[in-house]
Design a protein that fits this description.
119 residues, alpha+beta, six-stranded mixed sheet
Length: 119
């Protein structure tokens, strides 16, 4: 497993730690000109949970993958937080914002990997 895949797994683990739902890994590695290699999209039910998911991803990625974000946007309102790790972009949404922006289907040629919810 390469460093980017380790980071993706750490991000998923961070989302699962705080009960993130509907996690999807978007594999962009086969698409020319993609902005990153992978996107991980997840959601929380409230702005408080979205913020907690962001904190958990930050912590787990730092511990398990030894990676730090290049930038984080959207923390004030916590309706959609974007975390940029360079090779991996993380998007954490409230369900209604996720449905509105519909990032899951933006790259129709990308391989989508659904991660089962942990209850």
């Amino acid at each position: 497993m390469d460093q980017t895949q380790i980071l993706v797994q750490a991000v998923v683990h961070g989302l699962q730690e705080k009960k993130g739902k509907n996690i999807v890994i978007v594999d962009l590695t086969q698409l020319e000109g993609a902005i990153c290699q992978y996107m991980v999209i997840g959601e929380g039910n409230t702005p408080t949970q979205v913020a907690a998911l962001c904190d958990s991803v930050w912590e787990v990625a730092r511990k398990e993958a030894k990676e730090k974000t290049l930038s984080i946007d959207g923390e004030q309102r916590a309706e959609w937080i974007g975390m940029d790790y360079g090779t991996v972009m993380v998007h954490i949404f409230l369900p209604e914002k996720r449905k509105f922006y519909n990032l899951d289907t933006l790259w129709e040629d990308a391989k989508l990997i659904a991660v089962p919810d942990i209850d």
